[in-house]
Amino acid sequence: MKLIRQKIRQIPKVELHSHLEGTIQPSLVKQIAKRNNIKLRDGLFTPQGDFAWDDFVTFLQAYDEVSSCLQYSKDYREITYDYLKSCALEGTIYAETFISPDHAAEMGMSYEDVLSGCAQGIDDAEREFGIIGRIIVTCVRHLGPQQAVRIAQLMVDEPHPYIVGFGMGGDESQYVASDFTPAFQIAIDAGYPCTVHAGEVCGSESVWDVINHLPMISRIGHGVRSAEDSELIKTLANRKISLEICPGSNLALALYPDWKSHPLNHILEAGISVSLNSDDPPFFNTSVGKEYQNGAEHFNLDLKQLLYISRMAMESSFADTKTKAHLVKQINEWSID
To answer: Looking at 21, 200, 291, 315, which residue is catalytic?
Structure first.
């Protein structure tokens, strides 16, 4: 088993679903908070030093408090670099992470400062570890359609080579997908591919809503609840819409009671393209490397299947054509022997 674990650790991995503010390790939060003279509330950490939360509401509260520590461009450089470094040490060759201009704006940070910090972290990590990092700008669903339009327009008006796509997170139960069509149309018209969170907290109907009422959605964040609807599963496969699966997150947030209940294998067997992702790794005690290990231990995926997931993920990434071809080739040339 130890040899298998070592081999899985070496597999070239691809991560497509992480929230940058949710990747910050507790030790780094404390360091940044001290530097920025921010007092963290008692109870944010467990006695063991992990983030303390009990349910989805308290998770979001902890997430927001962690995000509030980020006040300068150098903070974003540091968290981007730290996240990509940790991914690279687990064999990750490419990672897309979501950034939320709304979170930064609440702290008085400009979009330009956030981007410059992220870009520096991406450059430093690639130079030191060879990992390629890219950014997906996301709007926040529960902040409403007009704010989503503003975020999409901001992204389009201030393009950056490391921004490769547009997405939407937030409370799935708020509004309907068609309310956000103008925002997504702005991104699509400017040539940006799109992803959107759906089928996580809400059921398969939320996935139907976004794929039928938002333009050219090529990936779904989470989407695991799609497994509850056989017709939806067929539609996702036929339309070649990929799912950004986050099993560790799903169990931590009690979407499923145990690994056996999780539908990853059912989704794979239906021929749907998937990626394995960490979502908010320190909050859920996971990482992209652990998700691959979980794939073997809890879903009985062998090395060949895990490598195939890496290939599917890279092919559904929003990377430019040259980068995608280069990294797909690297995955194809990796030997499982």
So the answer is: 200
Q: What is the pLDDT of residue 2?
A: 62
Alpha carbon 130 to chain centroid distance?
20
H helix runs in the chain, sequence order: 2-10, 26-35, 56-67, 73-88, 101-106, 111-129, 145-157, 181-189, 204-213, 230-239, 247-252, 264-269, 288-299, 303-315, 321-332
3-state secondary structure of 166: strand
Question: Quick one: tokens of 249?
Answer: 């997150």
Question: For the chain, percent helix, then strand, then coil, each to nearest 5?
Answer: 55, 15, 30
Task: Give Cβ neighbours of residue 196 (< 8 Å, ≥ 6 apart).
Answer: 167, 168, 177, 184, 210, 214, 217, 220, 221
* 295-333 tens-digit pLDDT: 999 999 999 999 999 999 999 999 999 999 999 999 999
Q: Is 200 a catalytic residue?
A: yes
How do residues 27-55 score in pLDDT, each as one tens digit?
999 999 999 999 998 889 998 889 999 88
The class level of CATH for 2-328 reads alpha beta
Q: What is the pTM of this model?
A: 0.95
| Closest to 92 in 3D by CA, of 31, 175, 173, 13 | 13
84 and 129 in contact (C-beta within 8 Å)? Answer: yes
For the record, the structure tokens of 44 come out as 């944010």
